[in-house]
Amino acid sequence: MAAATEAFSRRLSDAVRGLSGAWYGRHMAAADRAIRSRLPLVDLVLEVRDARVPAASAFAPLRRRSPEPDRRRLVVLNKADLADPSQTEKWMAYMKQTSCSCVALNSHSREGIKELLNAVRAKIREIKLGESDCTGTVLLVGIPNVGKSAIVNAMHRIGRIGAAEKGKLKHAIVSSHPGETKDISGYKVASHPNIYVLDTPGVLSPVFFNDESGPLLALTGAIKDSMMQEFEIAQFLLAILNSRETYKKWENMNQAGDMSSFSHAMSSSSHHNKRQYASDHTQDFVVKAVCQVLFDSISSFKGYLENENELKSLIECQFIALQEAFRVSADLSEDVRKLVAMKLLNLYRTGRLGRYTLDCAPDVRKEIVS
């Protein structure tokens, strides 16, 4: 991370630290205790991490001090469709080198879930010494908003085979907001062997492993935005975008955000079932306008991005330009910068601005030597 970008990271880290673990309320503390009590009772622990931040999203209760591999744990790097594919491959290689079983997937991909189910079956058979008619219990754990409930629902849909089960087995609540799962619930996901998955609430440690984790978890949505200043998180995001090369892919956006494209989109909306609205920032023509604004601002910037003050000046200019790209009126009574920040963060978190991995994979060779 560049020095100027680190300055934004430190400020956001101070803000996270100032919360003093406010996200760790009594419900999360109770869930933490319940999960810890079940860890020694299940056959396999399925740890879900965010593929964009594999280190920062590690589940704290599973951090091992022993060098011995944990053969009863399978790590799932979810949201791999939002991460840099090359970095995901490096993380997979690192996990394999450290004797940790790992699967990278997108919870909305049927093929990815099938691969996960096969990996779970293989681990259960290994643990049960090859028994085919055994019953295995799997504890699904992870921090908030990494997609645990989406995964268990997808496993349940694909893995169940008895027609009599359809419509009778409940589904987990899926939400883009962290903290929606409140209780530990069981779901049957496979037969022969019979496999039951316990879906657990997301638990985020009140104290992070290092100062770099807080900003990354705030950016990816593991910490509720309502606890933070969205503008500060968006500033950190723009600092990262400005220091990466991804913006060069936006050079030929064809000025999709200009008024002619906007007018055409609005005039043609009557010919489609789904109407287009200027206020909907997820519309393709708005996303293209945003990408074009970011490309123009970065490519035309003549300052020094390593200088914190100059980077801050660029970000301020980008916010003004993004206000127009998002068509946010300056006459709104609510905080304009907050609204722009929320829209920008949503586009990042849904992959509309590209695929980014914020935790670089450790060098396997250095790890082995140490």
UniProtKB/TrEMBL annotation:
Keywords: GTP-binding, Hydrolase, Mitochondrion, Nucleotide-binding, Transit peptide. Its main location: mitochondrion. It comes from the Eukaryota. Residues 137-245 form the G domain. The keyword Nucleotide-binding applies. One of its GO terms (biological process) is mitochondrial translation. It holds the Pfam family MMR_HSR1. It is found in: Mitochondrion. This is G domain-containing protein. It comes from Oryza glaberrima (African rice). The gene is LOC127752465.
